[in-house]
């Protein structure tokens, strides 16, 4: 296509070539289910003419995973997709093609490759929720006692065929701050479990349902660096893992 960089480079191709793609989910797209988000992204990749690796079987589809899916209604500034490629392509060219194929409320961030074959797991995630003024005033009185509590039991359902269970989500809450009417929380993961923003809102004495569409995931830290060393210097080489916050905590 005119004005777009060529899709060729030719570094050594790993046995399993994957690209990591960062993007945001804003506006009405936040109401997409996990399945619909995958389908939207696959269609964009096909329109962008990426060299995709497909699944086998009667109805092959591009091999694509989202390491940390959103809840329906949640916006995100830090979504990541792992895309399997059939052959090497230039990261800048892949970025240019995909940026033109995604919806306006799904802006593309970075395209990184090659990507490690290890499975990434989240370490912590930061969220923000804009509250109504009256609820913010009420929540302000509850944050201190919540953080001082030794435990924070919540009732959580798993599947339709299993009863609810009570779990303590207090160990997952690292920070909880109210700035004006915006409540920000940083929640850690342990053994791939974490607290849900809706559970923290409930613990603050707020009905979570009116705010499910106001939750915004701002940042995610991963347990590994996805991009392998030795890639071309012109390509992005690292996924941001909130290292500035970590250094700040160490300085404090």
Question: Can you characterise this structure?
Answer:
The chain is an alpha+beta fold. It has two domains: 120 residues, Pseudouridine synthase I, catalytic domain, N-terminal subdomain (Alpha-Beta Plaits), CATH 3.30.70; 98 residues. 23% of the residues lie in helices and 26% in strands. Strands 1, 2, 3, 4, 5, 8, 9 and 10 form an eight-stranded mixed β-sheet that branches. Strands 6-7 form a two-stranded antiparallel ribbon. 27% of the residues are buried. The C terminus is likely disordered.
Q: Could you give a quick summary of the protein structure above?
A:
The protein is an alpha+beta fold and 252 residues long.
Q: What are the defining features of this structure?
A:
252 residues; 23% helix; 8-stranded mixed β-sheet; Alpha-Beta Plaits; alpha+beta; 26% strand; elongated; disordered C terminus; two-stranded antiparallel sheet
């Amino acid at each position: 296509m005119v004005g777009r960089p060529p899709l060729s480079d030719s570094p050594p191709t790993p046995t399993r070539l994957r690209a990591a793609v960062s993007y945001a989910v804003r506006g009405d797209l936040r109401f997409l289910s996990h399945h619909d988000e995958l389908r939207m992204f696959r269609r964009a990749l096909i329109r962008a003419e990426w060299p995709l690796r497909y699944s086998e079987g009667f109805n092959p589809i591009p091999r694509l995973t989202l390491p940390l899916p959103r809840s329906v209604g949640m916006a995100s500034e830090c979504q990541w997709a792992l895309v399997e490629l059939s052959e090497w392509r230039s990261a800048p060219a892949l970025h240019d093609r995909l940026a033109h194929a995604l919806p306006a409320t799904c802006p593309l961030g970075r395209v990184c490759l090659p990507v490690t074959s290890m499975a990434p797991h989240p370490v912590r995630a930061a969220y923000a929720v804009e509250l109504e003024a009256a609820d913010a005033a009420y929540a302000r009185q509850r944050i201190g006692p919540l953080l001082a509590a030794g435990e924070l039991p919540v009732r959580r359902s798993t599947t339709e065929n299993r009863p609810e269970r009570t779990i303590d989500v207090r160990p997952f809450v690292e920070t909880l701050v109210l700035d004006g009417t915006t409540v920000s929380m940083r929640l850690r993961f342990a053994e791939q479990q974490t607290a849900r923003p809706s559970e923290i809102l409930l613990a603050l004495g707020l009905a979570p349902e009116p705010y499910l569409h106001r939750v915004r995931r701002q940042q995610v830290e991963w347990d590994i660096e996805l991009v392998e060393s030795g890639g071309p210097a012109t390509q992005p080489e690292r996924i941001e893992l909130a290292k500035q916050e970590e250094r700040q905590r160490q300085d404090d």
